[in-house]
Amino acid sequence: MARRPLVMGNWKLNGSKAFTKELIEGLKRELDGVTGCDVAIAPPVMYLAEAEATLASCGCDCTSKNVIALGSQNVDVNVSGAFTGDISTAMLKDFDAKYIIIGHSERRTYHKESDEFIAKKFAALKDAGLVPVLCIGETEAENEAGQTEAVCARQLDAVLNTLGAEAFNGAVIAYEPVWAIGTGKSATPAQAQAVHAFIRGHIAKHSQAVADQVIIQYGGSVNDANAAELFTQPDIDGALVGGASLKAPAFAVIVKAAEKAKE
Ligand SMILES: O=C(CO)COP(=O)(O)O
After folding, report:
1. Cα–Cα distance measured from residue 139 to residue 254, given in angstroms and rounded to the nearest whole number
2. Fewer Cβ within 10 Å of end Cβ, the chain: N or C?
3. pLDDT in the model for residue 2
4. Contacts 24+ apart (CB under 8 A), 156-164
5. CA separation for the pair 10, 40 (Å, rounded)
């Protein structure tokens, strides 16, 4: 089954109002004419207004303003009320954000987010009609101990066992081995493919149809030099890109590589 690739930029804790405007203007120029790949960016929520305005106001007649979707790096489970510092699904929708990253290893590590808590976020996003981008992946120690599949299964099961496989209809999974994030040491295409096939197979135990349509991105040191080879793999449906998403030309090369590999 043909799946439409998705390349998403996770800006993490980077940027400013000026940077947001400049990078998005660059992306609009670079991605003009791209039709075969979905593209999303997740700036810090502080800059969603700037991002939304820059995406909407196009000084040229390019088509790329319709290509780049907005996203966020996190969301909270509560909808409103006395939850100081939190950000709701409704607030994200207010800025037209669509793809919402949850379970990133940096949040699992620095904010002690559990599998169960992340499953609640998944449910909140589905309730709101937003697209969860569920990050999963093993640490270096877990990898060396041969626990990669067990860790990915456990992280998926938190959602599968509470919401059912159907929750993955229209959702995105990002396989991000922790040892590959920000290290310059990407998984090899074969290594990533093996885990992606395991992830799809794990979902297929519940529903083959859901497994066939779910987008599984690879993330971890994806750049303009290694993206094309990663995308040759049948179960790699795009990428979640950190560092290389902060430069319009590099990010555009990755998007175009996905478009070409999956046409
Ligand atoms: O964590 C990542 C995306 O969510 C990957 O980050 P890098 O591309 O900087 O390794």
Report:
1. 25
2. N
3. 85
4. 156/199, 156/202, 156/203, 157/115, 158/115, 158/116, 158/118, 158/119, 159/118, 159/119, 159/122, 159/134, 160/203, 160/206, 162/116, 162/119, 162/123, 163/119, 163/122, 163/123, 163/126, 164/206
5. 9
Which one from 30, 50, 104, 196 is the annotated catalytic residue? 104
pLDDT tens track for 147-182: 999 999 999 999 999 999 999 999 999 999 999 999
pLDDT at 60: 59
243 in ligand 1 pocket by Cβ < 6 Å? yes
Catalytic residue among 50, 138, 176, 259: 176
The whole-angstrom separation of Cα 37 and Cα 68 is 10
For ligand 1, say whether the CB of 227 is within 6 Å of any of its atoms: no
The reply to whether 206 belongs to the active site is no
Adjacent-strand bridge partners of 172: 133, 215
Q: In the chain, what are the domains?
A: 6-261 (3.20.20.70)
